[in-house]
Specification:
The protein is of the alpha+beta class. Helices cover about 30% and strands about 30% of the residues. The relative contact order is 0.14. This is Sortase A. InterPro entries: Sortase, Sortase_dom-sf.
Length: about 200
């Protein structure tokens, strides 16, 4: 009799865990869906503004040390957009980060594209940085600021970092990269980190 009760209890608990797992999966898909739609709307706004900038307005000059310009869209400031053709993503980048902003779009974690030390964080939504673990050395990314300055990058390093080692996201003894993208691994305990060198 006792064994039968234990078996029934195990079945009930298994059912509860299965139900909770299903709820988590549905929630993740919903969050991804919302983030994709919001990011697409913001990209449309940025693209509309960029289409009004003529090429003569984009001077080829050294921007080192200059604060990156911002564009206000809704309640948030954006510094530009990141695109990775291999992953089929084109995403807005918010000026600064917090956990709530990450639910909308990738965010600047630190640095500047002008100073060649930009670090961008995003959730691992499929529509955001969920696919960056599929990048390989030699793959490309582009960053366009809100004034139309284009920078192109090539992957030079891919690593998985412990999230407590914050300094490793933003600093290298060799300083051999100019752009870093990172996101949580699938389990959330580590960070997939992709380093790029500027090529243009």
């Amino acid at each position: 009799m006792k064994n039968k009760k234990n078996i029934n209890l195990c079945k009930v608990l298994s059912g509860i865990f299965l139900f909770l797992s299903l709820l988590l999966i549905i929630n993740n898909y919903y969050e991804d869906y919302k983030a994709r739609n919001m990011s697409n709307e913001i990209i449309d706004e940025i693209e509309k503004e960029l289409s009004m900038i003529s090429l003569k307005d984009i001077e080829d000059k050294d921007l080192t040390g200059i604060a990156m310009p911002k564009m206000r869209i809704g309640d948030y400031d954006y510094i530009g957009e990141i695109s990775i053709e291999k992953l089929g993503i084109q995403l807005p980048v918010m000026d600064d980060w917090d956990y709530e902003k990450l639910k909308i779009a990738p965010t600047r974690y630190s640095g500047s594209v002008y100073d060649k030390n930009l670090v961008i964080a995003a959730h691992n939504y499929r529509s955001h940085f969920g696919g960056i673990h599929r990048l390989n050395i030699g793959d490309y990314a582009k960053f366009i600021d809100v004034e139309g300055h284009l920078s192109e990058f090539e992957v030079v390093n891919i690593e998985v970092l412990d999230p407590t080692h914050v300094e490793k996201f933003i600093y290298s003894e060799k300083n051999d990269w100019h752009l870093t993208l990172f996101t949580c691994t699938l389990g959330g305990t580590e960070r997939t980190t992709v380093r790029f060198k500027q090529i243009y």
